[in-house]
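Aim 2 progress. For Putative oxidoreductase, the working sequence is reproduced below.
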Amino acid sequence: MSFRFNSARWGPLPLRFGLGLVMFVHGIGKFDVGPLANGGGVAGVAGFFGSLGIPAPTLFAWLVTLVEAGGGLLIILGLLTRYMAVLVAVDMAVATLLVHLPNGFGVADGGYELTLLLTLVAVSVALSGPGRLSLEQALFGRELLPEALSEMGEIGEREERPPAA
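Predicted structure tokens for this construct:
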């Protein structure tokens, strides 16, 4: 067995860990337990969503909390990575547009600097996949992709893939 270092497959790792950690901590804080509690819990998030005019604020507060906490953890672990990254990208894009955009760019003023960055990192992780050191690689020997995407291969890939069993 030969080892060939492929930086393109290792590149997503720090992005995946960073994105997953930030989202996990933000999501866990919304459960309002332990040292990461945000003080308002999911009910506080629902109240805030209601003040923004978001319909079904309690439902969306729970969805956001689960996407951030559960999705963040799955992204760290490298399991269902692309799917979770898409959900996180949508979550952060909505937060950018509805909450942070009116406050300008700077994060110190509640601006969109951080949420925009998280949106773009999530899009990058969704496009690149989990990379190496992921549960997808450890458990299945490959990334979990829909069959059509899996057959397309990677851009610039030169290796022939064996037919699916």
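The chain has one domain: 9-148. This observation will guide construct design in the next reporting period.
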